[in-house]
Q: What sequence folds into this?
């Protein structure tokens, strides 16, 4: 893979089988087998023959309707979902925020959850302890909340902590799936600044967002996905325009609204 | 490449198709070993979260097997029609240490079985060797087991005061075998935890089935009965039970005060290896499928 690339995706297809009728239990499996029935499954083709290069230090936005395969693509880049065909090469340490509040234990304090999150992403105990204060400061929760159980948090506070963990891991590649909707205007400003800092350090960011203004503001390129296919690739403004035209709603303010 | 200090993962990772076959094992095991702190801390935090509000919670961890041991002791004694001074205490001690050891394995298996389905969101968000989650359950099971040892020693010491003619030995060199046998029990528990964790992803009622399996398994293990009661070809029942050899060896060490027989030691090691190899194969070969199925 060329040096300047952070992510190279070659002819990637991801299919998986979903079970559509019964619950997945041993009891049902035995019952079905005794009646000679088969499990009704459906093959979902989440990503179809996608080829894409993402250079270091760039911010890529991914737009598309629900079910376009955006989240599946992100999980594949993170190494969570295996490709069905093709391959993905990733150069650098990945930090992910693919679903809000992931891995958070609601009974533990925000601080404990930060430590756990850091360890899960592969840091050593010493490394994450060194960073905990910085992450807690970044999240800037109101008085003392950081040492209270996460179950007492509002969803905004929850999102702030999760986001702070993801962006402060000094990742080479940061994958954010709908993570920017967390927090208020001032936190959003801070998040944007932090992401611009990361880019300035030649780190790479991939953002999935329905907040199209965010894509316009932050990204230097964008792709539009639809039903597993990459329909277009280019400058974010152009892609967002095309996407909006496709949605046949024009550039209504509601689609440019971030929150 | 930015900041080499934070380069935790291998610099270049390639993700290729692979289904129901093993990923490259050496990088997997390296990554597994590198992130062992995560499994240790996860078990520590899980304990912390569970007993944050109840100081009595930890007491119950010891009380539960202890009370159960007394119940079984009564049961065994009644069935046998009473006991003599000589055998009474050793029967109790045998049930205690056997039950504590059995619980170590079964807690590890039960916790491990649930670890993947319960860790769903963590699995959806981050790539790491999934085998760390059942490992964390096994570590928790070990920390739960540890305080039961002083309880056992305390019961035996008190018992020896009242029944000085008991056969239970004092300090013996054979006790040095205990850590080795525990290691075998721990590895067997982890391996079977891996197996049931995989099953539980595909069949969500596996853990219900597991509670019956555990019960039958307990009755067919040398916990409520002495391994010596098996003679001739019946001894096969000890060897076909994954915990049979190690529980018999436990009894040898703690109750008989002797070095376990070679057969039991080899049996313990073979079962530990089989469990971790078979469980590990099932688990690792399917773990990249977990994110889709959760």
A:
């Amino acid at each position: 893979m060329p040096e300047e690339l952070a992510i190279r995706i070659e002819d990637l297809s991801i299919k998986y089988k979903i079970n559509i009728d019964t619950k997945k239990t041993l009891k049902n499996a035995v019952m079905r087998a005794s009646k000679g029935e088969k499990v009704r499954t459906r093959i979902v083709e989440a990503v179809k023959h996608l080829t894409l290069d993402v250079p270091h230090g760039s911010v890529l936005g991914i737009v598309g309707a629900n079910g376009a395969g955006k989240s599946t693509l992100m999980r594949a880049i993170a190494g969570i979902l295996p490709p069905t065909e093709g391959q993905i090469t990733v150069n650098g340490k990945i930090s992910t925020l693919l679903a809000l509040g992931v891995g958070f234990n609601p009974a533990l304090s925000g601080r404990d959850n930060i430590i756990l999150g850091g360890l899960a992403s592969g840091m050593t105990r010493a490394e994450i302890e060194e960073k905990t204060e910085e992450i807690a400061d970044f999240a800037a929760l109101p008085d003392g909340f950081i040492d209270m159980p996460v179950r007492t948090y509002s969803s905004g506070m929850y999102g702030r902590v999760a986001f702070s963990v993801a962006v402060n891991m000094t990742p080479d590649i940061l994958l954010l799936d709908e993570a920017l909707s967390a927090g208020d205007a001032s936190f959003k400003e801070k998040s944007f600044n932090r992401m611009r800092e990361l880019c300035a350090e030649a780190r790479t960011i991939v953002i999935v967002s329905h907040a199209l203004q965010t894509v316009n503001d932050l990204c230097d390129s964008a792709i539009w996905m639809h039903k597993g296919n990459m329909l277009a690739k280019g400058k974010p403004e152009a892609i967002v325009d095309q996407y909006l035209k496709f949605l046949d709603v024009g550039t209504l303010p509601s689609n440019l609204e971030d929150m | 490449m930015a900041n080499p200090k934070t380069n935790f993962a291998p610099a270049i990772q390639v993700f290729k198709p692979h289904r129901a076959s093993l990923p490259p094992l050496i990088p997997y095991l390296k990554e597994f070993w590198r992130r062992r702190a995560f499994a240790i801390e996860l078990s520590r935090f899980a304990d912390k979260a569970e007993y944050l509000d109840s100081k009595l919670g930890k007491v119950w961890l010891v009380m539960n097997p202890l009370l159960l041991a007394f119940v079984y002791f009564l049961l065994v004694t009644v069935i046998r029609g009473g006991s003599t001074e000589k055998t009474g205490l050793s029967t109790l001690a045998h049930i205690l240490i056997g039950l504590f050891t059995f619980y170590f394995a079964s807690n590890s298996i039960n916790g491990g079985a649930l670890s993947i389905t319960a860790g769903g969101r963590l699995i959806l968000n981050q790539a790491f060797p999934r085998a760390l989650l059942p490992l964390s359950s096994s570590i928790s099971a070990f920390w739960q087991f540890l305080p039961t040892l002083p309880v056992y020693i305390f019961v035996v010491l008190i018992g020896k005061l009242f029944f000085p003619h008991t056969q239970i030995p004092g300090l013996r060199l054979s006790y040095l075998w205990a850590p080795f046998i525990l290691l075998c029990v721990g590895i067997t528990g982890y391996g079977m935890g891996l197996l049931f964790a995989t099953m539980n992803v595909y069949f969500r009622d596996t853990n219900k089935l597991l509670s019956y399996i555990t019960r039958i398994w307990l009755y067919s293990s040398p916990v409520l009965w002495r391994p010596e009661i098996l003679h001739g070809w019946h001894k096969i029942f000890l060897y076909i039970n994954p915990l049979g050899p190690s529980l018999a060896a436990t009894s040898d060490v703690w109750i008989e005060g002797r070095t376990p027989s070679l057969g039991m030691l080899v049996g313990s090691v073979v079962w530990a290896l089989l469990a971790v190899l078979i469980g590990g194969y099932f688990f690792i070969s399917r773990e990249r499928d977990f994110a889709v199925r959760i």
Summary: Chain B touches chain A through 48 residues (CB under 8 Å).
